[in-house]
Structure formats: C-alpha cells, structure tokens
Write a structure and sequence with these properties.
The chain is an alpha/beta fold. It has nine helices and five strands, in the order βααααααβαββαβα.
Length: about 190
C-alpha cells in the first residue's frame, strides 16, 4: 500500500502528556505504569477523578501544555519519516481542556516549528481516514476507528494500550508494524 499522508499524534507519541499528569497530580509514574502493564486502568487503579484532573490542568492554562516534555523517541520517530514522499501532519485531540489547542501550538512552535501550520485538532481522527493515509497513535480506539474508516494505523506502544509489552522499545515495534502492513511509498525510490 502506498502512503501519501502520515498523521502523527502528539500526546503519548511525541509529547509526554502522561508524565505531565503524574507530576501535576503527584503520582508515582513507575508504580502506575506497572498497574497498566498488569492490565488495569487509571480509574480502577487510583480512583482518579477525571473532572478534578482536568480542573488541575485548566488551572495552569496553556503553559501546562506548552511546557510538556518531548518523549525520548520523538527525534527518532521523525527521523524514520525524514525522507518520506508522504506529507506529514500532526493530528491531535483538543482534550477536555480549554487551553489544549493554544498550548499544543505553543509546544510545536518550540519543539517542532516546521509542523505549526500542519496541525489538525479533532477527537474524531477517523474522519480524515482514507486509503493511502496512515495514523501513528497511542490509542487503541483511535487506531481501530481509523482502520475501520479506510485508513492504516500503527499503534504506538505505551503501557496503556494493547502494545504495552513493547513500551520499553517503541520504535522497534513501529518499524515492525509498518513492515507487517506492507507499507510502501514512504521513501523515495533510490
């Protein structure tokens, strides 16, 4: 399959949203990740009140989003597609925050300025799916819906998704998934 467009998710793929939440809510990241690896989710494990969490995020405005750390593999992931003939864009959810959109754009301006005018904000990522379009996302549901709508998807390994066993070496899994999909047309003919 020839890929003409690649959409990269931000939170959990390029940006350490989870680390930011752990810091904000004073949670032990390693402890929480172990529960996810064992198959639990946040609410089951810690009884986190989602409304309280989003209120804390909103209290910090767009600064919270703008100052999240890039994930350690962000450069490697972008490098994987560096010579692609496909158009690369950012496809991210505006989340349950009044400040996410502004903060995410500020983050891109700082860390990935080339992509500032290539950002698409929607929680309904499957609406842009079609043949020749690939999504790289950390959400099982987003990937499943994207595929059902006619696109291709790579589930980026994180402790909260079905690829959790590969979360310590996510790029190896991404490469394997691309190969398994039989994705062609990513790189120019040599």
């Amino acid at each position: 399959m020839k890929i003409e467009r690649i959409y990269l998710d931000m939170d959990g793929v390029l940006v350490d949203w989870f680390g930011g939440i752990c810091d904000l809510m004073q949670l032990d990241r390693v402890w929480l990740e172990q529960f996810w690896i064992d198959g639990a989710n946040t609410e089951q494990t810690l009884k986190i009140d989602q409304e309280h969490m989003w209120n804390l995020v909103n209290r910090h405005g767009s600064d919270w989003w703008a100052h999240l750390n890039p994930l350690p593999w962000t450069t490697e992931l972008l490098g994987l597609f560096a010579e692609t003939s496909a158009e690369i864009s950012i496809l991210t959810s505006p989340a349950n925050s009044d400040y996410a959109a502004t903060g995410k754009i500020r983050w891109l301006k700082h860390y990935m300025p080339y992509y500032v005018d290539r950002i698409h904000l929607t929680a309904q990522k499957h609406h842009v799916a079609r043949e020749g379009v690939l999504l790289v996302d950390d959400s099982d549901i987003n990937c499943e819906r994207f595929i059902a709508a006619g696109g291709e998807a790579v589930l980026f390994p994180q402790v909260w998704n079905k690829k959790r066993v590969f979360s310590s070496s996510p790029m190896q899994s991404v490469r394997a998934q691309l190969k398994a999909l039989g994705v062609t047309g990513l790189f120019p003919e040599k």
